[in-house]
Amino acid sequence: RRRVLEASQQLTEIINSCLESETSAESPEPSREAGPAEEEESALHCLWVDKFTPRRYMELLSDDYTNRCLLKWLKLWDTVVFGKEKAVKKSNPNAKAHRPFNQPKEQQSKWKTKVQLTEEILEAELDQHKRPKYKVALLCGPPGLGKTTLAHVIAKHAGYNAVEMNASDDRSPEVFKTRVEAATQMKSVLGANEKPNCLIIDEIDGAPAASINVLLNIIHRKDAEGEAAAGPGWRRRREGGLLLRPIICICNDQ
């Protein structure tokens, strides 16, 4: 046991020295905010999971097909969140010319790959409020697969501020509703250029049925402008507004 501890400590010192040499080569000027003693102390107390976690999209080690699907779905919110119009795909004239002679056109369009089918589902027409057809993405899989890391990296890559909450911690439906509405509807007051929020709900399989019903009501909430014109204004304030921010749910047991 003593030999293992000594070898582990020696390996940690070697890795830290290599990382320090790389950072010093990239930035020769020392940082003024934190001294060398503070940096060394934070490096010693930092977990390897946090130290080497992916920070960018290209550093993800999860399934590439899943990564692309989630990013494609998140980019569908650009019209309602950032005011960007959906890009129209240009037809490729060379695709028809290079079609195999022995394969008819009907048969070629009949058999489609999994990627093509998923792209057709995700590229469905937006609703009247310029939102995608599916308002919530669900990531499921065993612990340690990288679901939470994927959600945070994709949200940051798409220009959002990732707001994480644990559904199993908030057992009360009222608290759950308040936190969801605060993350998806209220604007940040920290700065003028603050990024819009993307809500990440972890352990959604541990939430009670009442909280799931609250989430479904928020997702399927209709436009309250017409109802407010016909009825009293307090009803609109009580029901809240439309869901205008993406929500990513994470679970272990689908």
From TrEMBL:
GO cellular component entries: nucleus
The listed locations are:
Nucleus
CDD domains with a match to the protein in the record: AAA (cd00009)
Every AAA+ ATPase domain range: 133-245
Q: Key word Transferase present in the record?
A: no
Which terms are listed as keywords in the entry?
ATP-binding, Cell cycle, DNA replication, DNA-binding, Nucleotide-binding, Nucleus
- Keyword Nucleotide-binding present in the record's keywords: the answer is yes
Cross-referenced InterPro entries? AAA+_ATPase (IPR003593), ATPase_AAA_core (IPR003959), CTF18-RFC_complex (IPR053016), P-loop_NTPase (IPR027417)
Membrane-spanning parts:
none
Location of region: Disordered: 19-39, 91-110
Quote the SUPFAM superfamilies the UniProt record gives: P-loop containing nucleoside triphosphate hydrolases
Gene Ontology process terms (BP): DNA replication
The entry lists its GO molecular-function terms as: ATP binding; ATP hydrolysis activity; DNA binding
Family designation: Belongs to the activator 1 small subunits family. CTF18 subfamily.
Protein name stated in the entry: CTF18 protein
Give the organism the record lists. Sagittarius serpentarius (Secretary bird)
